[in-house]
Structure formats: C-alpha cells, structure tokens
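Hi there,

I know you've been waiting on this one. I reran it after we fixed the sequence typo, so this is the corrected version. Both the input and the resulting structure follow.
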Amino acid sequence: MGDSENGVKARKTVFVTVGTTSFDALVRAVDTQEVKQELSKRGYTHLVIQMGRGSYTPTKSGGEDGSLAVDFFTFSSSIADYLRSAALVISHAGSGSIFETLRLGKPLIVVVNEDLMDNHQSELAEELAERKHLYCAGPPTLHQIIEAMNLESLLPYHPGDATPVAKLINRFLGFPDD
C-alpha cells in the first residue's frame, strides 16, 4: 500500500504554508520529531514548508534513512502548484489559503496563530471545522490533531452559497441577523 510497482514508496507530500506573515510557532510545530514521525507513520514522504518572513529555520532532510524528506522556502510567486501536488495541507488561518485549498479538494489542517490579538481568522477556521470541511489546531495541539485525524470523515466544500459565511462575518461585525 502506498508503494509503486518497483517497491519504491510513492511520493506523498504535506505542504505547509504561513502565507506572507511570520508564524514561527507553526513552523516550529511541524519541525518537531513527533509531528514528522506521525506524518511518516501515516505514509507521507515529503514535507515542504513555506515559512514566510519567519526567523525560525526548520531542519532540512533528504529522507535518505526512510524518514520524512523536509524542504523549505520563504516565498513563491504562486503556491498553487504546491497546493495541487499536496496530499495534505497544513495552513495558517488566512481565508485565501483556506478557500483555495478547499476548492482544490485537498485535506486541510488549519493552525490558528494564537499570538494574534482579536483573531477573527480563528472564527472562520472553527466554523469550517465544525462543518467537517477541515481540521483546526493550535501549534501546541497539531501533533494530536494529526494523530487523531480521519481524512475520510472530512466533507467536500462546495462554494456557491455565501450566506452562512456572510452571516458569520455580520455577526462578528455586530450586525443583526436578517
């Protein structure tokens, strides 16, 4: 299972994105041995981290010893190809990254930046997690979410009716429900 015909393990990539910001807590979390081991145990072979303006540099690995191969970069003119080739996406809670990933039908773990004041992004992530479109974590709970996740239980996101999202935004802004 997961092997190709010649016995070589098929490439299965996890793509991590922090967007244009600095989110060292997320990069540190995915760079821990426990997260990397759990991803490897689940059959993932490569971890690609888009680290943005962060100052923490993750540990590169070629994966020669059978462990997860790890690579990183700061920015790319487009992350679309990375998202398309990923078997799992771990993302900051920016709405653009969330909806682009969901539109591609990719399994998604959104990691909320708990250091942000007035973090409206967490409300979006939590609402979509409640609707079973994605998993939601904080940097300290990422390992547990990966360990417990069942990607088969996620429901496809079908864009179109913006009413629930508009109501959530209106509630957040203090407008009455219609």
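Quick highlight: DSSP finds seven helices and six strands in the chain.

Best,
R. S.
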